[in-house]
C-alpha cells in the first residue's frame, strides 16, 4: 500500500459507508492510522448522508436506562445499548440526533418548562445544544384574573442558553420572541432541518380557560449559524388540523397534519422559508376523532402520526403511530393504517445514521491539543511518517 497515493486513499475512504470504512482499517497500518484521525472523521461526516443512507431508529425503553437501535434494513434485529454511569432507576429522554451523535436528558432532572434542541453548525464545525425556558408572572394583573387561572397564565419572557461542544461552555443568547401564550411549545425536543431547530408553538385567544380552543399554531425556528429565532411560514390549511407533528425528511422540514375526519396529510417544505414550496407527499386515513375527544390533550396523543424517514428507494415513508413503526407506500394516493402491522417500539423514536464522529475529538480540542493527521507507512524498508495539516484537510472538505 506504500505506493498508493495518500491523497487518493483519503478521497476513496471518505466516500465509503461507515461499515466499510471500519472493515478497511485492517488493510494496512497506513489506512488504520488515517481512519483513526479526527481530521478524517470530520471529512467523512461531510459526505456521510450521501455515502451511508442506512438509517437507524432509536428509542428509549420505559422506566429503564436502556436504549435500542433498530436497523431499518433488518427490522427484526434490535441492538440494545445500556447508558453508562447511569443509575438503574433513572430514565432518559432523547433530545435529538445529529451526524450519529445522540443527545439524552435525565428525566428526573429535566424541568418541564424547558425546551431543547441539538444540532450542528457547519460554519464552525461545532455541535450545539439549545436550552430555552419560560418564566411566569408571580401575580396576575387584576384585569387578567377573570380570564386566566394562575397556573395557566401568560408567559412573561423566555431565557435561552446555548452549549458549545467545541468550547465545553454555556452562554446566554437573546430570548425567544414568540408570544406562546398558555400552551407554549408542543415539542420538548427541536426538529433539526436546514441547519436550524424547529418547534410547534400554540397561541390561544384571550378567552376563559374553558373556551380556549380553537388555537392558532405556528412553527418557531432557531438558526444554529446566526443563533436567531424566527417564524417559519405555514399554509392556512394547517390551522384547521386537530393535531400537528414535525419531522426532517431528507433534510427538509416536514409537517404531518391530522384532522378530525381521520385524514392525515404529510407536507414537505422543498425550498426552505418559502411558503409556496410546501408540497403534499401523501395522504393517509385513520379512524375519525370522536367529538368528546377533540378537546382532550391526553387522548390527542392516540391520533398523532409522526413521519420519520424515506426508504432507500424513496418510494416509502416510515411512520410512527401508537407505539409502532411501519412503512407507507408513497405511490398509493391514500394509505390506510393497519394496527396489526409494524414493529413495536417504546417511547419516542428518533432517526439517526452511522457515523465516525467521536466526542474524544472535541475533548482533545478543549485540552488544547493540536490536530494533525499522522499516518504510518507499513513498508518494512521505509517506516516513514507523513503528516497532513488540519488546514489542508479542511480545504479538501470545502472543495467537496
TrEMBL record:
This is F-box domain-containing protein. Residues 370-400 are annotated as: Disordered. Residues 1-43 form the F-box domain. It comes from Rubroshorea leprosula. It comes from the Eukaryota. Residues 383-400 have a biased composition (Basic and acidic residues). PANTHER family: BNACNNG10540D PROTEIN (PTHR31672), F-BOX PROTEIN CPR30-LIKE (PTHR31672:SF13). Pfam families: F-box, FBA_1.
